[in-house]
Amino acid sequence: MPPKLQNIRASKKSTQDFVPVREVRDGIIVLKDGGLRAVLLASSLNFALKSEDEQTAFIIQFQNFLNSLDFSTQIFVQSRMLDIRPYIASLETAYKNQLDDLMRIQIREYIEFVKSFTEAANIMTKNFFVIVPYAPTALSMTKNGPASLMPWNRKKRGSEETNRTFEEQVTQLEQRVAIVQQGLVRTGVRTVQLGTEETIELLYKMFNPGEERKPMSLEVSNK
């Protein structure tokens, strides 16, 4: 095999090894080390527009929320350029289907205005996420004793035991998710847990920032 081809294959392998995700199962990210992660999409609020009393109340509630946690969490902000291509495409369709000449002129002018405005303003969209972790302890992984680590015993236990263990770990993770959601709702921040499709889409956009897919359809109501 030519050295250049070997280097390319080695590079691809190292890139895959860099990604710590093994799979996304039932909306839960399963890491290669066995850890689990749940992803919550959080609503936003404009802190600067709140009164001084409201700001103080928010800070106190958020402080209480952090102090109530006995596990770590990660707050992740995703900033992306606003993709207006689907909107422009819908306007182009309306332009083609419009029979009135005056309306066609107005639609064309509006399309050009939207394009120039978004290019000049450099509009960004932001999504806010909270990552809730759960790492299985060594005790839970070997709860059946040292014999459970033997290869023949692992095969004997089979996939049924693996699924049962996964469900138990997910239950522990869901308890943490509930704690985070209850704590944040007291600050006025609402959250919703991403499903499998939304989680895969989020990971895809993170590792492929130059490629576009459909925008995230999941929304968090502020009402």
From TrEMBL:
InterPro entries per UniProt: TraC-like_dom
Domain TraC-like: 26-207
Highest taxon of source: Bacteria
UniProt cross-references to Pfam families, sorted A to Z: TraC-like (PF26593)
Protein name: TraC-like domain-containing protein
Species for this entry: Candidatus Kaiserbacteria bacterium GW2011_GWC2_49_12
Lineage: Bacteria, Candidatus Kaiseribacteriota
